[in-house]
Amino acid sequence: MSVYKDELIYTAIVLIILLVTRAIIVLTVKKIGQKSGTTEARAALIGRYATVTLVLLALLIEAFIFGAKSSDITLVFSSVFAVIGVGLFAVWSILSNVTSGVIMFFSFPYKVGDKIKIHDKDYPVEAIIEDIRAFQLILREDNGDLVTYPNNLILQKAVTLMEKDALDDSSIL
């Protein structure tokens, strides 16, 4: 036990710093989510992404604390990233949608309840946003059809926010 006394103290310090950092990030994400009108579930999802990133960072720091050499860590990470890279290439679309979901959390100008028009030449959509998830938007068309639209495509297409007055007029007809 006394052999690893310094390492255990450094580990406790790293753990406290990362827990405080995680709490700050989660609170900040929740405040941003409330300010932009997103759901709590989306804010929690972004918080989980941050937690996973911090855990991986903690593992890297712990390896250095317990005496791992840079060359050993480089070898491990290059091997792991090679395997992950091959796997992610196979699921590129999913990774693209998740990344788009994170981007949309921080800078998507539309929120649940807004009626939008997506200018897609193959499948134009005019619908109300029912939910914004990690992989796709859930949209409800005027005829009641439910449309799921991938997050990566919504960031690539022109989108128009339909005016509130136009929505009220169309509901009268």
Automatic annotation (TrEMBL):
Which keywords are on file for this protein?
Answer: Membrane, Transmembrane, Transmembrane helix
Annotated source species: Winogradskyella marincola
Task: Give the location in the cell.
Answer: Membrane
Please name the Pfam families in this protein's record: MS_channel_2nd
Q: Which residues cross the membrane?
A: 12-29, 49-68, 80-108
UniProt keyword Membrane, yes or no: yes
- What is the name listed in the Swiss-Prot or TrEMBL entry for this protein? Mechanosensitive ion channel
Domain Mechanosensitive ion channel MscS: residue ranges: 94-159
- Predominant location category: membrane
